TrEMBL record:
Keywords: Cell inner membrane, Cell membrane, Membrane, Transmembrane, Transmembrane helix, Transport. PANTHER family: MAJOR FACILITATOR SUPERFAMILY, POLYAMINE TRANSPORTER 2-RELATED. Residues 22-406 form the Major facilitator superfamily (MFS) profile domain. The keyword Cell inner membrane applies. This is Bcr/CflA family efflux transporter. It is a multi-pass membrane protein. GO terms for molecular function: xenobiotic transmembrane transporter activity. The chain crosses the membrane at residues 19-37, 57-77, 89-108, 147-172, 178-197, 228-248, 260-279, 291-313, 319-344, 356-375, 381-402. Its main location: membrane. It comes from the Bacteria. NCBIfam families: efflux_Bcr_CflA. CDD domains: MFS_MdfA_MDR_like (cd17320). Signal peptide: none annotated.
Length: 416
């Protein structure tokens, strides 16, 4: 930005908001999802006690049902916003999120709470997909990358602090208070968007919702080898990450006996993702997406192998587990943005619909894999270590097939 006039660099598409406010609004909208996910971690035992849930693994459903709503909702949010505009779909999703938070506060049963969580996930699917679409409407190329990097710096910080924030809420109130906080945050974000966020998709650029057109875009997405390959690989590595999040409370409090200090350990590990995001933004222009993501996937595989071996040998103390988990988060952070960019590289002509389908595929695969691993928790780290190792090997195999043995070598043309 130093070599251009700042007023010329900043898009007029998000007026009346200036550039700093636009970045903060986009980040706050995107933060709805990780905040609603990770604030719940310290509250899971309290929820289990309130509803007399005998099996601690069943409490993971509070997290997985949220992700099911999030993953399924992405199938429709992109096409809807391409047809009706960003603003109405975004505001509708945020309204669903706020109403779902009210339902969660008043939930009389565990089943009702799970319904509320699924609706929360559905609402945040709109915020995740459309926030990215709004940035794409206003900026392109390096300018878009710069805006997304600034927003992601804020967004990435949320999973780090959210469990501690949830623990702080529990110190002054019951677990339902967390949903009150989520509801208030959602209402504030909704009001800010209603007041200041304009429509960014012109009428002339809106697409048809005719079934034939939507199905054609879906077909182009799922039949492209590079897109579907990297989507599947991302889903596999995401599955291991979801499994870690699902069982984190049980691992840190049940195996390592950290009690109320578990959010601090979680934050220390999650910080690896933030470090990776910063490094990736600095290095990707020089090294390229493939070199970085393939190197990170190799590191992910090595970490999974070391974790499995040390668990089998019975030499996985807290310090080593935290170091390996931080490396897992770091390598995931170096992978996920580049996998997304590689998957979307051939889909510029249907970017909105392709982005929705990519998000759904990766999230739903991650949920299936993560739930299978998380539900096998038996009081030891062996099920997680095995699942982590196998899902990572699957991702590595998929990337090898997609690239036909050309890993670490940049391509000038997308694979079709």
């Amino acid at each position: 930005m130093s070599d251009v006039n700042a007023d010329e660099w900043v898009s007029s598409g998000h007026r009346p908001m200036g550039f700093p406010e636009f970045v903060v609004v986009i980040a706050s909208i995107m933060a709805l999802n990780p905040l609603a996910m990770d604030m719940m971690l310290p509250a899971l035992p309290n929820i289990g006690a309130a509803f007399s849930i005998p099996n601690a693994n069943h409490l993971q459903l509070v997290l997985s049902t949220f992700l099911i709503g999030f993953g399924a909702g992405q199938f429709i949010m992109g096409p809807l916003s391409d047809r009706f505009g960003r603003r109405p779909v975004l505001l509708g999703g945020m309204a669903v999120y706020a109403v779902a938070s009210v339902l969660a506060v008043a939930a009389p049963s565990f089943e009702t709470l799970l319904l509320a969580r699924a609706l929360q996930g559905l609402g945040t699917s709109a915020t995740r997909v459309i926030a990215t679409s709004i940035v794409r409407d206003c900026y392109a190329g390096r300018r878009m990358a710069s805006v997304m990097s600034l927003a992601m710096m804020i967004f990435i910080a949320v999973p780090v602090i959210a469990p501690s924030f949830g623990q702080a809420v529990l110190l002054v109130t019951q677990w339902r208070g967390i949903f009150v906080v989520l509801m208030l945050y959602g209402i504030i974000a909704l009001a800010w968007s209603v007041w200041r966020l304009p429509e960014t998709l012109p009428e002339a650029e809106r697409r048809s919702l005719a079934p034939a057109d939507v199905l054609s875009a879906f077909r182009q997405t799922v039949t492209n080898r590079q897109t579907i390959g990297y989507a599947t690989a991302a889903g596999a590595v995401m599955g291991a990450l979801f499994a870690f999040v699902f069982s984190a409370q049980q691992v840190f409090t049940g195996i390592y006996h950290l009690g109320h200090y578990f959010p601090l350990a979680f934050a220390a590990i999650a910080a690896g993702t933030a470090v990776a995001g910063f490094l990736n933004s600095r290095l990707v222009g020089r090294l390229g997406m493939r070199v970085i993501s393939h190197g990170a996937l190799s590191l992910y595989a090595a970490v999974s192998g070391v974790m499995l071996l040390t668990e089998i040998l019975g030499v996985l103390p807290l310090a080593l587990f935290m170091a390996l988990s931080a490396l897992m988060m770091f390598s995931f952070g170096m992978m996920v943005a580049n996998f997304t960019a590689l998957a979307m590289e051939p889909q510029g002509h249907i970017a909105g619909t392709a982005s929705s389908l990519y998000g759904s595929i990766t999230t739903l695969i991650g949920i299936v894999v993560g739930t299978a691993i998380g539900q096998s928790f038996d009081g030891t780290l062996l099920p997680f270590s095995i699942g982590f190792f196998l899902s990572t090997l699957a991702a590595l195999a998929i990337v090898l097939v997609v690239e036909k043995g050309r890993m670490f070598k940049p391509h000038h043309r997308p694979i079709v």
